[in-house]
Amino acid sequence: MHRDKALHSFLIEKTWQMTEEWYASIDKSKATGVYASTNPNTIATLKKQNHEFHLHFCEVFVKEESEFLSDFEPWVVMIAKDDEHLNTPVTVIMNEFFNVQRQYLGFVKEFANLHKGEYTQDTINLWTDIIINTFNKIVTWFVEENQKYSEEKLFAQQEMINELSSPVIALNNHMGLLPLIGVIDTARAKLIVENTLEQCTEKDISHLLIDLSGVLIIDTMVAQQIFSLIETLGLIGVKSTLSGIRPEIALTAIQLGLSFDQVTIKSNLAQALASKDFS
Hints:
The protein is an alpha/beta fold. It has helices at 5-12, 15-25, 40-57, 65-81, 83-86, 90-114, 121-164, 186-202, 220-235, 247-255, 269-274; strands at 169-170, 175-182, 207-215, 239-243, 263-266.
């Protein structure tokens, strides 16, 4: 890698200027995500992050590539997992990367003009190539890391939604209530089975009331999953009561040959809660 301490020193002195000029160049009326924020703390953090980028990037002219990239990694990871940036479209972030790239190309021209005759055109072209190639690597690196943390965040949110959508509510005397609501597809049914078994064990539930009155649609696969849950609960010593079971669900169960032997049936939730088992 070409090293030039003079260019490095020139750029280091310009880092805060680049940060302020970059932030001022953002069209706040059209900006989105972190770039549209009016929160003073968010703006200050954004500028600090940008300035730290410059402190790292300027080192490209005085360090070997492997050392440069190793030192840059914490910054890339920090920005990729930053909530403000995760909530900003990645295409918008990429555009700002390339706006900063244009700043560097402009300052290389300024440096060359200040030192006319001291550097060959080949050297100036090499600096330009270094900037463009390094930005390409950093942007690609950032996008990969951003995608990874976006998927992790989405997965965590989905896990929370799934857990909240099938909560086992502990009642008195080791009784529990599982109110199921909405459409249950095969994927959600599988999660309900897993979460229910885990929660019954954690909450020391010995009798679980499964209320289906809020369930809109259950297909044959889901009906099998629910009855599989009842059977599995029986294996770990948990009795089951079903309430709010619709006629079409009952018919589906019968057609599938699913047995109601291990479960008590109540017409609605109020009746189930008023029964001696739950009183």
